[in-house]
Structure formats: structure tokens, C-alpha cells
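User: Show me an example of a complex going from sequences to C-alpha cells.

Assistant: Sure. Here are the input components:
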Amino acid sequence: MQGESYEKAAILGPGLIGASIGLALKQRSLARQVVGLARRASTLETAKSAGAIDSGTTRIEEALEGADLVVFAAPVLATIELIERTGSLVSMLRRIPGRRPLLTDTSSTKAEVVEAARRSLPAEVDFIGGHPMAGGELPGPEHGRGDLFVGATWVLTPTCDTAQETISRGKALAQALGSRVLLLSPQVHDEIVSVVSHLPHLLSVALMGEAADLASRHPETWQVAASGFRDTTRLSASSPELWRDVCLTNCGPIADAVAAFRQRLEEMEAWLRQRQGRELERALAEAQRQRIELKEQESHVLQTLRDGQ
Amino acid sequence: MQGESYEKAAILGPGLIGASIGLALKQRSLARQVVGLARRASTLETAKSAGAIDSGTTRIEEALEGADLVVFAAPVLATIELIERTGSLVSMLRRIPGRRPLLTDTSSTKAEVVEAARRSLPAEVDFIGGHPMAGGELPGPEHGRGDLFVGATWVLTPTCDTAQETISRGKALAQALGSRVLLLSPQVHDEIVSVVSHLPHLLSVALMGEAADLASRHPETWQVAASGFRDTTRLSASSPELWRDVCLTNCGPIADAVAAFRQRLEEMEAWLRQRQGRELERALAEAQRQRIELKEQESHVLQTLRDGQ
């Protein structure tokens, strides 16, 4: 779908995701000018060398001046702070009659971010929360890719206060970057990601800890760890600051997901202690069936995308 | 390293691993003839079409007749049964003065298999337990690859009763197939794999279960599940029968690993409920450091292999 095109896009936090959005906006001619805001000048230099931004600044006023698209793409707590500061600076944004500035974010948790926007941003701007389900193993603007969002799901989280037109504009932007849009309430989004994203991350971290403990007794541990272990712990290499923010802004749902998971493990442990082969096999077979279904569904989606439907 | 070459290799259970061994033996001219034993004729047909065996049989006597290399490569419980049956059929193996038949296995758990061999096999054969740390996402002889073991760790598990010569012969075989050999006692092997292989598998299964529960309430779950979720649950697509056997022959160590893991999660849950950002960040940073170290170690090993050192 053809998106609106913007005069000046401000990317507040041009890390992997922010830089990829900058690249995609420029490659698809969706923004005449892309400006990045970061705390460190080196981040801006890297983003500029990567072609993700035209210019960079460490001053938020300079980034927002004349912008008609603002993307908050910093870690969650920093994004909340940036939204609050933007609230008192909206008069600096581009004023065109009949076309409000569009503001969105890319945070991994949504309820607290959307609440901050509701509290801080006036009705004269369009805000919709967003979460592109894309990423890479390595962080930083140097790993940004203009095609990062192609075929990915981009969750948008309107509330009952969000105007239909704001939703349409958010959808058009995400689709113009190549994504499939999914609308969810901030609360349902946060519940789902607590299970399919935040829980796997914590499992990966805990597994790395268990293996490191074992390795302190048996140094051969790392030689024995094969591809399955590496797959399961890959997530734990991500940024601790970023994930601390995710945990702190989605505490309740994540803690509940961890509690439910612990209960499931308790059951498995009992089957193991009692050598209940039948119960173990039933759980293993059920998971296999579900995982194969998921894979088939995925192949189907890829095929549909390839067929251009 | 140049391995001994064998007249007739019997692969008892030519699945992914057994078929890959057959292919590697033939490609490297380490066996003049490779015979496969399976319960189903269709498995033998597939293994033969894949070039992994020269001929197949469903009768163990026919497979063992004149063999000087026997590889037990069935699921663990079936392997134990095959070892017991072979114990009463050793007279059928090839008799060359001064060169005993070599018997080994590829099971994922070692203590019970090695104990079955000690109980069932007479001193006139050389037995050493083995576990090549290699595999693939898809099971079956059609996915076998002659280079599956190149660069992989192949654990051998001698006991205090294993002769030095038997260890040397086992090493030569694994190295001739391209592996790096690691010697561990069956007990230490089982403890290590309970943490780096069996625990990740059960985590993958339990996570798939949690996500499926959530999806029954929120069907959008699968659209939100990104590559991190797919990586963490990939293992759960493996064969339930095979993994049931693994669980049943390594119950104690796996149950202990699950218990330790549950405790670690309990701690994380408390940090989440109390919003202890500092503790969470410390655990996340520690895991990141360990995971990056593991990756660097891996790159170093790959570089060393590439340099042919």
C-alpha cells in the first residue's frame, strides 16, 4: 500500500529498529528528510554512515522542529521520557491545516507507553502505539536494514480514544514499510508478548546461568553444548538495559507467565521422578504437533507473500 | 586421522544419525560393505536410496553375520534391547585373530546403555559408548549427510573396565568421520547433557504448551510470535518417542536440572513482582557476557578448524 509521504521524519533513538525505519523511509521515498536524535554523537555518526538518517542531533528541540512524523524508537523507559518531553514541545512540530503530525513508537511493551502518550500528548497530534515484530541478533544502527520489516507483523495498539483516521495513518505507514498490520489493545499485546517474547528471553537467560554453573564444575560443558543449546540461548545475548526496561514496564504479565511456566515444569519434574513415560510422551507429542502446525502456517504465509496476494 | 577400515559395518537403526554414519563410512572408504537393520522395510528402502547402506534387513542375525563394526543407532530403549540381543549372537560376528569386532552406539544418554553393554557383551568384543553431538531438524535416513559429523564433538564414554586399545579404536573411528573426540565418564556425560540438551528440550516443549494455551484465548498469538519464539521452540518438533526414551534413561539428572531451573525462575519471578530492576539487569548482563563468550569461543574453534590446525 502507498503510504503518505512526510516532509521531515524524526527518529528518536536510531538503534537497530530506528535505523531500519530511517533506511526504509528513505529507500521508499516516504520522507524527504530523516533526522536522528541520540544521546551519543557516535550513534548518530554510525546511523548517518549507514544511510539511515540525513542528519543527527543530541537536542530534542532540533529533532522535532518542523517534523511531521515522529518515531520513538529508544528503549522503553527512555521512550516514555521522550514522549513526556515531546508533550511540551508539540508547538515545534510542522503545522499544516488539516494534517496533524503523526507520532508513533516501536517499544516492546505497550500499556505504559500508550498511557504516557495519553497523559502527555495533546489532541492536536495523532498518536498510535506500535511494535514491529522484527529484529536481529546484533543491536545498533550499523545493523539496520531497509527491508527488516518486509513480511513481518507490525502490531498497532489503538485505544478506545484513538481516532479511526489515526489508525488508518498508522496502518498505511507500517504497510508502506512492507509489514502486515495487526491491531491489538495495549493490554492484550502485553499479555501475548509476555508469553511469546519476554518469557522465552528469561528462559534463555536462566538456561545460560544453569549451564555456566555446570561449566564451573565440568569445563567440558561448552564442548558438549550443540546447536539446540545455542538456539535456545541465542536471545540471552541481547542488550541487558533494553530488556530490563521491558521487564519493568510489563512486570505483572511476565511474572504471571513465569509462574504458569514453573507450574508446567513442576508437573514434568513429577513425571520424571515417577518415570511416567506415557505422560512424558503425550506432552512431547502434543508440543511436536503444535510446533509442526506453526511451521506449516508460516510456510503458508510465506507462500502467500511470494504469490503477491 | 586415518581410521581402521572395516569389512562389514552393521548399522542397527539407520535413522538420521545411523544413515549419516553409513554415508560417511562409504564416502571415506572406511567400510567395504554397510548393512542396515530396521523394523520397517520402508526405512531400509529409504536408507538404501539415500546411499547410506548397501543392503538392508529386518533380521538382526543377518545384520550381524560377519560384521566387524556394529553401530547401535536406534532410540535409547531399542538400542539397549539390541545390545542385549547382540550379546547372545557375538559368535556370528567376524573372527579375525588379533582384531576383535568393534561395537559402539550413538545414544543421547549413556549410563544405562553402557551398563547394558557391560552386562550383555562378552570380553571377546570391543565396546565403547558414544554420542556424536550432531543432528538436524528433520529425522529419518533421507536427511542423512556424510559430512554431518565434520567439526562436531563426538563424546566417547569409557569406563574403568574399557581397555586403552578400545578407546583408541573408538577415537580413530570418530576422528575418521571428521569429529573432535571428547572422553567423559557415562555419569558426567549424562549430567552435562541433562543441562545443555535435555533441559532445553523440555523448556521448548513447555513453552510451546504455554503459547498454545494462550492462543486458545487469543488466536493472534501466532502472528505475534517472532523469530525468538521460533528459535526457542524449534527443538520441540523432534520425535516424541526418541525423547521419551531419553527422559526415561536419564530421569534423575534431568529432574534435578528441572528443579534447579525452577528455583532460578522463582527468583526471577520475585524480582519481577518487586520491580527490582537492578537484580534483573545484573542477571541479564551476566547471561549476555556468558553467551557472547560462548560465541567467541565457537568462532575461535571454527577458525582453528579452517586453518587446519
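The lines above are the inputs; the final block is the predicted structure for all two components together. Chain A has twelve helices and eight strands.
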